[in-house]
Design goal:
Layout lengths: L2 H26 L26 E3 L8 E2 L5 E19 L11 E6 L6 H4 L3 E5 L2 E5 L8 H6 L1 E8 L2 H9 L5 E15 L2 E6 L13 E11 L4
Parallel strand pairs: 7-10
Antiparallel strand pairs: 1-3, 2-3, 3-4, 3-8, 4-7, 5-6, 8-9, 8-10
Length: 223
């Protein structure tokens, strides 16, 4: 093999390695969403018991809006804690809402955490929505699917929470605790308002929970 040809092959291998390292770095790198980059203290709400339905509680008088240097405001609407199976995970970085949240989790509890039910459902996420489809008849009543699963937008309270959320995978068992919030941001001609649902029996636009996450507990499970 000619020397020039060997050098070309070596250069090609080096380029491939560099590209693979860059890809690995971008996949593993964790950053805070830009509107809440500095993070804020996040007092814990009451925590749900394992196996129970999500726990929603009143906001105590001492909890005030979470304010950020960017001008972003998170207005707490309710304390919230959910113990659930992860049905799907979707990461975002380029939509408007990514200034607050880089990840959505589709979560299921009660019958929507059971493998025999989930095996008959096609679950996906896109555009900040969660989709649940089936052939012929659903394995459980449709309203039960709605009541026992949801797409939830995760707003991390700090970089440790952001890293923990990055590691969450489908079929993990998680307990996520924090505050349902109305998130708002206005800077120049760029702004948005994102309002959390406070009901488990709604569906469609506005039905997702927007959670300012204080704590993440995660464990892998064999189903």
């Amino acid at each position: 093999m000619a020397k020039e040809e060997q050098q070309k092959i070596i250069k090609y291998i080096v380029v491939v390695i560099v590209l693979l390292l860059l890809y690995w770095y971008t996949q593993m790198r964790v950053t805070m969403p830009s509107a809440i980059a500095e993070g804020r203290a996040c007092p814990m709400p009451p925590v749900v018991q394992m196996g129970d339905v999500p726990l929603q509680t009143k906001v105590p008088d001492y909890i005030t809006p979470f304010l950020f240097q960017s001008g972003a405001v998170l207005e707490p609407l309710a304390g919230f804690s959910v113990n659930a199976r992860v049905l799907s995970v979707e990461h975002y970085s380029r939509d408007n809402a990514s200034i607050f949240s880089h990840v959505d989790l589709a979560l299921g509890w009660k019958k929507m955490s059971e493998t025999k039910v989930l095996d008959k459902l096609n679950i996906s996420q896109s555009g900040r929505f969660y989709w649940c489809r089936w052939s012929n008849e659903p394995p459980i009543p449709q309203q039960e699917i709605i009541n026992n699963s949801a797409n939830m937008h995760m707003i991390p309270a700090n970089i440790q929470i952001a890293k923990a959320l990055k590691q969450v995978k489908k079929d993990d068992q998680v307990t996520i605790s924090g505050w349902l919030v109305q998130a708002s941001y206005l800077k120049g001609n760029r702004g948005m308002s994102w309002n959390s649902s406070t009901s488990r029996d709604d569906m469609g636009n506005g039905a997702c929970e927007v959670i300012y996450v204080c704590r993440v507990e995660r464990r892998k499970r064999t189903w």
